[in-house]
Write a sequence for this structure.
């Protein structure tokens, strides 16, 4: 393969941390494949670290054409400066058309810095990507103005066209053990990071995520009115054998822990039933629940946007509805 | 311009050569009758054992052993093979290890590591181990994109 066949492709940053739970890279490869087929180019995954053989094979199995690898002891731990140096140099040399990454905690730190280095734009937390059939430009759909509208952003002048995408927005391709591809090892210069030195790293104990695995999820919003009202959701969840989620205002108010946050900056859930109580339906929140099979919304405002996506809606004060609902369930179960 | 190395890889099984993943590679010419070669052939999807064939000499260019798909063929050096759970080891009659092959099992694939210090029919060093990889230090390493035909030439991938 000559350099020419590596040029102008669709690149995906390979975030393999906690690989078997964190699937965002695989989801972006799948989306990247669709974009690459439209643009008649290749999907390349960037893989930085030490002894990352397994992940190179996994990315090929999930649809990558090429995996571009940098292996070095100093790349073992995710460090934004050293990773930026490597990827920026590659991007300057191979001039990718599109560069995608997950809107994870690392992606949110890494991609803005990389975009600045490459003097290009970045659309953060996109909820969709497509190719404009007339111009071939990447249409990056992202919430704007507090989530009240969706903006379609194009990067018409600069390359690469960069975007971060929230996990679970796209579906990954199934593992294909018969897939073949290419692995490319460009030369790298890893400079010792003089400002940050990793003394020790320790894997955080990852417990099963009850919220993301739950079949029934009850979500509370600021419309509940108080922390005490929010606490009733736990009783409701116990009766229904479900889990409790929260919107951003609820977490900011201290009614719920950050780990219960759903939406663009939190978790994405796909329960069979989701009961949304006192939530208006802001886009930042609904991004995280749109895959739910059935949505039941309870809100006092009949014009609340949440009713547009709900399968069943109930207009009423949550302070009145919730106790009735609990009482009914207690009597029946 | 930025220099790069590349090879074809499989989602199923690869070898680790020259610090790179490769689904198959060959050093030397397997179609010759008496010269050195080391063939790590492509493992088709569904099989899990690596396919190593070789004609191996000692430092003084004497033929020690021929391997045909992991089985001993001609064996003037009276070498012996020791299988174990994840691979095998070939011993020289002197008691030294000639070549060791281990396959690492991942969640969805396999990686075979070869450790050997091998010489050709002129007594020149052709491959040696470094870290976990085998490195070709004399002659060309040709990567394979498909299994090599029986007794076939090593057409460049």
């Amino acid at each position: 393969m000559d350099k020419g066949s590596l040029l102008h492709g669709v690149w995906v940053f390979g975030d393999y941390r906690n690989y078997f739970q964190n699937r965002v890279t695989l989801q972006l490869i799948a989306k990247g494949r669709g974009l690459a087929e439209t643009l008649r180019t290749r999907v390349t995954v960037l893989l930085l670290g030490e002894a990352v053989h397994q992940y190179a094979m996994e990315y090929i199995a999930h649809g990558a054409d090429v995996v571009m690898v940098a292996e070095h002891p100093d790349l073992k731990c995710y460090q934004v400066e050293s990773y930026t140096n490597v990827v920026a140099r590659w991007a300057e040399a191979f001039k990718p058309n599109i560069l995608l990454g997950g809107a994870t905690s690392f992606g949110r730190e890494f991609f803005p810095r990389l975009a600045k280095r490459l003097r290009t734009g970045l659309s953060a937390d996109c909820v969709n990507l497509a190719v404009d059939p007339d111009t071939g430009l990447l249409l990056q759909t992202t919430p704007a103005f507090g989530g009240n509208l969706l903006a379609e952003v194009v990067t018409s002048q600069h390359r690469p066209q960069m975007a971060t995408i929230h996990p679970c927005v796209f579906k990954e391709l199934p593992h294909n053990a018969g897939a073949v591809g290419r692995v490319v090892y460009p030369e790298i210069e890893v400079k010792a990071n003089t400002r940050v030195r990793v003394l020790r790293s320790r894997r955080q104990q990852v417990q099963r995520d009850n919220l993301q695995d739950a079949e029934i999820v009850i979500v509370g919003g600021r419309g509940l009115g108080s922390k005490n009202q929010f606490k009733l959701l736990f009783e409701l969840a116990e009766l229904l054998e479900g889990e409790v989620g929260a919107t951003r205002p609820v977490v900011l108010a201290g009614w719920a822990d950050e780990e219960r946050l759903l939406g663009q900056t939190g978790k994405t859930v796909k329960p069979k039933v989701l009961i949304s109580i006192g939530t208006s339906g802001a886009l930042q929140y609904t991004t995280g629940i749109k895959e739910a099979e059935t949505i039941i919304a309870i809100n006092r405002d009949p014009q609340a946007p949440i009713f547009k996506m709900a399968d069943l809606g109930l207009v009423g004060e949550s302070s009145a509805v919730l106790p009735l609902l609990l009482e009914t369930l207690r009597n029946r179960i | 311009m930025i220099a790069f190395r590349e090879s074809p890889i499989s989602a199923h099984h690869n070898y680790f050569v020259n610090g790179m993943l490769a689904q198959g590679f060959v050093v030397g010419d397997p179609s010759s009758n008496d010269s050195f070669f080391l063939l790590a052939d492509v493992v088709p999807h569904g099989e899990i054992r690596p396919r190593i064939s070789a004609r191996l000499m000692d430092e003084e260019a004497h033929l020690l052993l021929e391997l045909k798909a992991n089985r001993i063929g001609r064996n003037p050096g009276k070498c012996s093979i020791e299988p174990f759970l994840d691979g095998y080891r070939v011993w020289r009659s002197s008691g030294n290890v000639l070549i060791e092959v281990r396959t690492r099992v991942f969640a969805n694939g396999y990686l075979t590591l070869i450790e050997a210090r091998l010489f050709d029919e002129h007594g020149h060093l052709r491959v040696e181990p470094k870290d976990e990889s085998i490195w070709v230090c004399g002659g060309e390493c040709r990567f394979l994109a498909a299994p090599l035909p029986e007794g076939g030439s090593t057409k460049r991938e």
Summary: Chain A touches chain B through 31 residues (CB under 8 Å). DSSP finds ten helices and 15 strands in chain A.
